[in-house]
Amino acid sequence: MTNAVFFVTTGSKRMLLRVYGVGCDQILDRDKELDWLSRLSQLHIGPKLLGTFGNGRFEEYLPSTTLTKDDIRQAPISAEIASRLHQLHSIVETFPPSNTETLEVWSNVDKWYKMLVTELLPILSAKNKSWQSQIDTDLDVIQLRNDIELCKLILSQTDSPIVFAHNDVSKTAMVALD
Question: What predicted TM-score, i.e. pTM, was given to this entire model?
Answer without folding.
Answer: 0.57
